[in-house]
Design brief:
α2 crosses α4 and α2 runs parallel beside α5. With 479 residues, the protein is α+β, with helices and mostly antiparallel strands. The strands form 3 sheets. Strands 1, 2, 3, 4, 5, 6, 7 and 8 form an 8-stranded mixed beta sheet that branches. Strands 13-14-12-11-16 form a 5-stranded mixed beta sheet, with no helix packed on it. β13 and β14 form a beta hairpin. The chain has 2 domains: 265 residues, Cathepsin B, Chain A; 158 residues, no CATH class. It is 20% helix and 23% strand.
Length: 479
């Protein structure tokens, strides 16, 4: 029998202190950051962020209509809008993430959708919105020194009032300290590319997962403000982020990004970042639904582009170059004023209203009555979108009457009127034309405004309010 003896030098093992363990954890995270973001990633950590959450007045930002994009509507099990985004960008060593989320990702997406741009065209800087132009255009008092952060309200307000110039006009180079003002030709170009509006989603109780999925399923990306932790920072694959710690990043690592999709199989949202393709899953990351709601996301927004009229030639039909493939219902016109009908409004009451509106089918496909879709006229609270009332419910269906019939419904969700129309709406035709036969026809309703309304409210026409018709562009359903 052979015995083998192995002699080891004496080694003394000591227990690690909590302080040493924390230092080792930070070192590991620092090495991971350098691996995925480069050697300079940790020199000025704050430049990787840039959302000034503490300066944001979220309670004063108007909220979006929630019922038409929420869990009331069945969303598919997964949805991915990433093919309609520009390539993953990189903000570099600047705290400009808000501008990257709003300009480069959101505005480029919306413009591309309006113009039916291909993936190849979206990679062209002429078709991308410039984050530098947006960040420079934000007033100095509303952003940090040396390009160090801003808020969503500041960025969105500039995008609405001024617009954002293309990246081909204002490249993301030579940012300096971001204290300079945009050049005059930048302003001229930016005026061509404005947002029409932006709205906050969620409420005082936080982000609703089904509501957020509903927006994405309607083709509406969601810009978010998030709190970043150690696991997020060092992400380098497609692993779903389910929890995080904040030993390295600290308690003020707030960052702007945008959601491009979700997957129920993963129970996660797909997030587009602006740290280049070496970070995360080639620039993306999956974030678990529950973690997203409880600890990750602190603000969320949707926005819409300025809509050009689909009838530039004035013939009351959709122009050929505005027609989109498949179905596309467009809320086109809206007038609401005090009724001048002396029989309906003998005392000239402000609550006796006259409504005039129309909705057009700008898709290539006819919309049959069997689709059972609707037009809603809605009153909703500017600062609490869950406080709303459906004033008029206009139902398009073959459930009642014969083709061409219309009439009052005995019951419905409208508190002022409920109506049905048994009609098919042809491509390039308006719903009013389909019912009445003339290209100049419009819908007209006299109705009573609720006397209990007190505060700031919006009146809006929503085409396909319950999202029955699946369209390539859902952002033009509102007027």
């Amino acid at each position: 029998m052979l015995f083998v003896a192995v002699f080891l030098p004496m080694v003394t093992f000591v227990s690690c202190s909590e302080e040493l363990l924390e230092d080792l954890k930070k070192l590991a995270i620092e090495l991971a950051l350098k691996e995925v973001l480069g050697e300079n990633a940790t020199e000025n950590l704050n430049t990787l962020f840039g959302w000034q959450k503490d300066n944001e007045q979220l309670d004063k930002i108007e909220t979006n209509i929630s019922f038409g994009s929420s869990g009331n509507i069945s969303a598919p099990a997964s949805f991915d809008l990433s093919a309609k985004f520009p390539p993953i960008g990189n903000q570099g060593q600047y705290g400009t993430c808000v501008a990257w989320a709003v300009a480069y990702n959101l505005k480029t997406y919306l413009d591309g959708l309006d113009r039916n741009l291909t993936t190849a065209q979206l990679a062209d800087k002429a078709n991308q919105s410039s984050p530098k132009d947006l960040f420079w255009a934000i007033p100095a008092a509303q952003k940090g020194k040396d390009c160090n952060g801003t808020g969503f309200e500041s960025a969105m307000d500039v995008a609405v009032s001024r617009g954002i110039a293309p990246l081909s006009v204002v490249p993301y180079t030579e940012l300096g300290n971001c204290a300079s003002s945009p050049l005059s030709n930048w302003n001229t170009e930016a005026a061509k590319y404005k947002l029409d509006n932006y709205r906050q989603i969620g409420d005082k109780y936080g982000i609703d997962i089904n509501e957020t999925k509903g927006y994405l399923a309607q083709g509406r990306p969601v810009v978010i403000g998030a709190k970043l932790g150690d696991n997020f920072m060092s992400a380098k694959d497609a692993t779903v982020l389910k929890s995080d710690t904040y030993g390295y990043t600290g308690q003020h690592a707030y960052h702007a990004m945008i959601l491009c999709g979700y997957d129920d199989a993963k129970q996660a949202f797909r997030v587009v970042n602006s740290w280049g393709t070496t970070w995360g899953d080639k620039g993306y990351i999956w974030v678990d639904y529950n973690f997203f709601k409880k600890e990750f996301c602190f603000a969320a927004f949707v926005a819409s582009n300025k809509k050009n009229t689909p009838d530039n030639d004035g013939d009351n039909n959709v122009d050929n170059d505005k027609v989109k493939s498949g179905f596309d219902v467009v809320a086109w016109e809206l007038q609401d004023k005090v009724s001048t009908d002396t029989e309906f409004n003998p005392n000239n009451s402000q609550l006796k209203r006259a409504l005039k509106y129309n909705v057009f089918n700008s898709g290539t496909s006819d919309i049959p009555a069997s689709k059972d879709w609707n037009i809603l006229y809605v009153l909703y609270n500017a600062y609490d979108a869950k406080d709303y009332k459906i004033l008029i419910y206009d139902y398009y269906s073959d459930d009642k009457g014969a083709l061409g019939d219309d009439g009052e419904l005995a019951t419905g969700p409208g508190i002022a009127s409920n109506w049905y129309n048994h009609i098919n709406v042809k491509s390039k035709q308006s719903a009013a034309q389909a019912l009445y036969g003339g290209v100049n026809d419009r819908f007209n309703y006299d109705y009573n405004m609720p006397a209990t309304i007190n505060g700031e409210y919006y009146l809006v026409i929503i085409a396909d309010g319950y999202d029955v018709i699946k369209e390539a562009d859902e952002t033009n359903n509102y007027y």
